[in-house]
Every structure is written in structure tokens, then in C-alpha cells.
Specification:
Elements lengths: L1 H8 L17 H12 L3 E3 L2 H9 L4 E3 H8 L4
Length: about 70
């Protein structure tokens, strides 16, 4: 929650909304539906969620892959 608050305070920072997704019970399915509705990327560490969302046409940012991409080569 502290990180979320810091992201909100950044210039041009994060917009946080509370959206309801009706008719869906699973959290992953709700995230996918919400991503489709808002036309936004999904930021996740869950590889399987990323794969399913990608098949549904949602842009994925996997935190683990992003961290690996910026890790210096030693």
C-alpha cells in the first residue's frame, strides 16, 4: 500500500479506480475482463495469468521478466 501511495504521488502518476466486474467469480478472470474493458496493460508476476491474458489480446508486463531485462550482465 505504501508503494501504491508513492505511485499516486508521482507527477503524471498512477490512476487508481475501484471497478466492479459482475458475473465473474475468479480473480484472474476479473482482471482479464477489466483489462479488456479499460483497454489497459496488465502488470503481473503470475506467468499463467499473463499467458491467458495475452491470448485474450491484453498487453502484459511481467514484473519478473522486466527485472531480468534490467539486471546487469556479469
Amino acid at each position: 500500500l505504501e508503494t501504491l501511495q508513492r505511485l499516486r504521488e508521482l507527477p503524471g502518476g498512477l490512476k487508481v479506480t475501484d471497478e466492479e466486474v459482475s458475473g465473474v467469480k475468479e480473480v484472474d478472470a476479473k482482471l482479464i475482463k477489466l483489462g479488456q474493458r479499460l483497454h489497459c496493460a496488465l502488470l503481473t508476476t503470475d506467468f499463467n495469468l499473463g499467458q491467458v491474458a495475452s491470448v485474450q489480446g491484453i498487453r502484459i508486463l511481467n514484473v519478473n521478466e522486466l527485472a531480468g531485462a534490467i539486471r546487469p550482465v556479469v
